[in-house]
Amino acid sequence: MGETSSKAKLVAAVMKHCRETIKTKKGKRTYARYKKIMVEQTITMITKWLKQLPNIFELFAYTDFVKPKIKRFAFPFGPDEGNAIQYFSNKEKVHIKMKLPTCTKPRSRKDWEWIEQELTTPTKIRAKIELALSLQPKNPTLRNQKLKGGLTHFFLQFPWEYPKTRKKEENGQVLAVDLGLKKVATIVIFENGKQISHPITIKLKGSQYRHVERIYNQIVGIQKQLAKEKKGKQTKRSKNKRRGKKKALPKEKSSGRGIST
């Protein structure tokens, strides 16, 4: 409605829109959610508060008071076409040219600059990179990692594309596993329907075996209790049927004689 609206208009708008529908025996009825006196008092309080405020005041954003915390940060450079990052890789090093801000709140192009750096590829993955389709990786992803000391470490994750491997053809071998109680499992390998290995058994120790046996006995006890309850219900039903038949009266036999008038 605005600050310049009259008090009567504000009260009428609140009383009109803030209503509830209640079902009664006669039908649905609408009632005002708040009393008129309460609405008038709140409007007077708000108008006094607005008059006390200065004419010019600064508006604040949510992030000015509460700083958001990102646990797992990931910024992919996949859609970039060399405007934010440029790189070249060989077997031993990766030359990176990346555009980074010079201040905490960049607002123009002057606040950004290109920074060059060379990264050495670890010796563990050099052999794997040679198997890739190309020595040049795809666009990286910027991620963060929290160290043990509490500091946050940012790093670039480069992916390489590898040729698709075909599934190995089946050689007719089957691994058969038989689960048991005293023995956890018995494993045997078959090839073309013939056993080609000795049975391998996995046994339990004393305390482990007793624990499994206790659980098995509890399951058996529960199954027996359920079976007894099921039988009891069936016997009760059969007894009730028999009692119903005994209580039913026999039908009267007709004499076959007519009544003369």
Number of helices: 5
Structural class: alpha+beta
Percentage of residues in helical conformation: 25-40%
How much of the sequence is in beta strands? 25-35%
Order of helices and strands: HEEHHEEEEHEEEEEEH
Mean pLDDT equals 78
Which stretches are low in confidence, meaning pLDDT under 50 for 5 or more residues running? Answer: none
Structural domains: how many:
3
Number of strands: 12
Largest sheet: 4 strands, antiparallel
What is the general shape?
flat
Integer-rounded radius of gyration: 42 Å
How far apart are the termini? 97 Å
Could you characterize the architecture of this molecule?
- The protein is α+β, with helices and mostly antiparallel strands and 261 residues long.
- It has helices spanning 7-17, 36-52, 62-65, 123-130, 206-247, and strands at residues 19-23, 28-32, 74-76, 85-89, 93-101, 112-120, 141-146, 152-157, 173-179, 183-191, 194-195, 200-203.
- The radius of gyration is 42 Å and the shape is flat.
- The N and C termini lie far apart (97 Å).
Layout of SSEs?
Layout: H1 7-17, E1 19-23, E2 28-32, H2 36-52, H3 62-65, E3 74-76, E4 85-89, E5 93-101, E6 112-120, H4 123-130, E7 141-146, E8 152-157, E9 173-179, E10 183-191, E11 194-195, E12 200-203, H5 206-247
Antiparallel strand pairs: 1-2, 3-7, 4-5, 5-6, 7-8, 9-10, 10-11, 10-12
